[in-house]
Amino acid sequence: MFKLDHIDLKILRVLSENGRITKSALAEEVGLSPSPCWERLRRLEKSGLISGYRAEINLRKLSGAVTVFVTIELDSHAVARFQSFERTVREHAEITGCWAIGGGYDYLIQVVAPTIEAYQDLIESVLEASGDVARYYSYIVTKTIRQPGPPLHLFSGQQKN
After folding, report:
1. Is residue 38 part of a domain?
2. CA–CA separation, 135 vs 133, rounded Å?
């Protein structure tokens, strides 16, 4: 465990809003000189708290692109079933997110496909390859209302390494 102070949280907030900011501009934004800012940034990266940098892609600008959330229930809760399903999920680039969840379903996956037909082909492939799915429900995204970064202002004090 290590402690995050208000400067660390500022660094994370700024980066979550603008991952392309220069290191010098980041230092200025958080009120540090460049060397201490870079040292903090390296520490946050080394700890795994910053796991990467990437661009946000506006899928509405890609003709036909569809985002689908899918809830999945496996036919068994044996460890081998979970491992098999998770291996299958990792094989498909169209599955852009997968979360094990508690409650009535076992997983929530996010799929981005070029068309509904491509989504259907993917889900059929997953069902066939895995063989572990008892049922699934698809929810097609019709409009994105809100998709901000994490609410970093809510976190202070201890964070896990």
Report:
1. yes
2. 6
